Amino acid sequence: MPSSRQKPRPDYKAIFISDVHLGSAGCQADALCAFMKTHTSEQLYLVGDIIDGWRMRKKWYWPQSHTNVVRRILTAAKRGTEVTYIIGNHDEFLRAFLQFRLAFGDIRVKNRALHDGEDGKRYLVVHGDMFDGMMRADRKWIMHLGDHAYNFLLWTNTKLNAIRRRLGMPYWSLSQALKKRTKRALNHIHNFEGHVADYCRRKGYDGAICGHIHVAEMRDIDGITYMNDGDWVESCSALVEHHDGRWELLHFQPHTIKADEPVAKEARIRAVA
């Protein structure tokens, strides 16, 4: 006699995460493990820079928490979640294997993907480094220099927040604050978003879902839906698509979530119909 128990419906149609930077000290692996434990989806998009090959070439760093993230992803794929890995600039070493139709078990690896939303729109899913002028071959050294500066900021941020925790103060991101207050950083972000929207308009996409700049955002740019899922280094954010077609950004406080603790699904920052 067949069992009457049915497999529970996943929480979301799709979840998009990027810029995890496994292999770097800044990765908020415990928070991501907790998120994946309590948030399920029919589709999971890993939108680039999941593995930080740039850092790992210089210094090996891979604690158990980073292995736990990989296990969570593999477990999701094994249980029926359709997992797509989009290559970014920090894990660009994988692009050399695309000609061999690279896959990790049930996980498909691509440069970009097309996501058909429940809202009837066609979304380009891409990491976003192709839209960053600093990723040009003649400017890439500047990007690597900036990566060193960024990692120094993360190190400073870790020390600063250790003091804040002792004083009972909430987490505060130094690099995020600098991005919001520095005119050059704001101009870079706006230029990036504009390039993404222009490309979608030329190629006939209704919108784009990307990462790369570590700034979670959802907005309309002259008729093009721009959505950035943020990162799991500073903001611990994810973009989700509900079964009814609504899009939402989820955001969690890093350093407050342990791998064995549930994540409150009420910790949301924005939703759009």
Report the major sheet: 8 strands, mixed
End-to-end separation in angstroms reads: 43 Å
Structural class: alpha/beta
Following the backbone from N to C, one meets helices and strands in this order, namely EHEHHEEEEEHHHEEEEEE
Number of strands: 13
Low-confidence stretches: 256-273
Strand arrangement within the widest β-sheet reads: 4-5-3-2-1-11-12-13
> Which percent bin holds the helix content?
25-40%
Strand content: 15-25%
* Envelope shape: globular
Output the number of helix runs. 6
Mean pLDDT across all residues, rounded? 82
Could you characterize what this model shows?
By secondary structure, the chain is of the alpha/beta class. Helix content is 32%, strand content 23%. An eight-stranded mixed sheet has the order 4-5-3-2-1-11-12-13, covered by helices on one side. The chain has a five-stranded mixed sheet with strand order 6-7-8-10-9, covered by helices on one side. A hairpin with a 2-residue loop joins strand 9 (217-221) and strand 10. Residues 256-273 have low confidence and may be disordered.
Tags for this model:
273 residues; alpha/beta; eight-stranded mixed beta sheet; five-stranded mixed beta sheet; 13 strands
Layout of helices and strands, plus pairs?
Layout: E1 12-17, H1 29-38, E2 41-47, H2 53-58, H3 64-78, E3 82-86, E4 103-104, E5 107-110, E6 112-116, E7 122-126, H4 140-166, H5 174-181, H6 183-203, E8 207-210, E9 217-221, E10 224-228, E11 237-241, E12 247-251, E13 268-272
Parallel strand pairs: 1-2, 2-3, 3-5, 7-8, 8-10
Antiparallel strand pairs: 1-11, 4-5, 6-7, 9-10, 11-12, 12-13
Helix pairs in contact: 1-3, 5-6
